[in-house]
Amino acid sequence: MAVTDQDRNISSSFAKGLAVLAVFDAQTPSMTLAEIARRSGQDRATARRGALTLVQAGYLRQDGRMLSLTPRVLALAGGFLQANQFGRRVQPVLNRHARQMEVEVTLAMLDQGRVLVLAQSTVDHGHITYGFTAGSHIPLAHTSLGRMLLAGLSAEEATATLATTDIPGHTSQSLTCADAILQRVETAREKGYCVTDSEFEAGIIGYAVPVSRPDRTPIVVGSSAPRGQNPEAETERLLRGLQLCAAELRQAEAVDHL
């Protein structure tokens, strides 16, 4: 296979080091070198070099056989958030609409077959919280955020993305057939909003609407709330609130360059 100019400019060692950083999450906050190698798809020696380099650079700490992230990794995210003025153009908008709606509001985008949380309202107001923060990953197939993000892709892209994604049954209401999920995605694409009921958490309804403009990287805002006595009225209220939030973010061009 011919080597392109772009290939010559890529550092495979650096890419493998980034892969080591990416294996840590809420379920596995610390792990051994063998676990890092397995989860990153690298051989033991390569994973060891990458991990020890990150220890030396201060992004990982080692405690016996276990390695874990250090707070220094926040500086990487902080650079992105500051460069895109999240503190001035995004966070206040999410907080204001969250207070008005009395639920948490989340801004999210796609990241390798999962939902990546870009920002979350920080005011103490909601009926329910899952404890997600910026940088968290949440499931794609059974959340309103995930399905609305899939709806921002073409039908072909959505099908291909879902084909590489795990579809576990979080609750008895979770759809586990890809075709059935894609039908819901198509409905969200047509309506311009997505609602899920008890598919990620029993008794919890999820809501999401698009923020990004057509032909841009899909970005959405969403909320979750317990099912009340008048779910239709609550759905109408929360979708309207999310649509106003999304419109304000678009008007401010807050996510146009993501």
Assign the structural class, choosing from mainly alpha, mainly beta, alpha/beta, alpha+beta, or little secondary structure.
alpha+beta
Give the overall silhouette.
globular
Distance between the termini: 33 Å
Major sheet: order of its strands? Answer: 6-5-4-9-8-7
Q: Output the helix-strand order.
A: HHEHHEEHHEEEHHHEEEH
**Average pLDDT level:** 90
CA radius of gyration = 20 Å
What does the main sheet amount to? 6 strands, antiparallel
Task: Compute the number of helices.
Answer: 10
Count of individual beta strands? 9
Low-confidence stretches: none
Short description:
By secondary structure, the protein is an alpha+beta fold. It has ten helices and nine strands.
Task: Name its key features.
17% strand, 258 residues, 3-stranded antiparallel β-sheet, 45% helix, 10 helices, alpha+beta
What does this structure look like?
- The protein is of the alpha+beta class and 258 residues long.
- It has ten helices and nine strands.
- The strands form two sheets. The chain has a six-stranded antiparallel sheet with strand order 6-5-4-9-8-7, sandwiched between helices. It has a three-stranded antiparallel sheet with strand order 1-3-2.
- Helix 2 crosses helix 3, helix 6 runs antiparallel to helix 10 (231-251) and helix 7 (144-151) crosses helix 9.
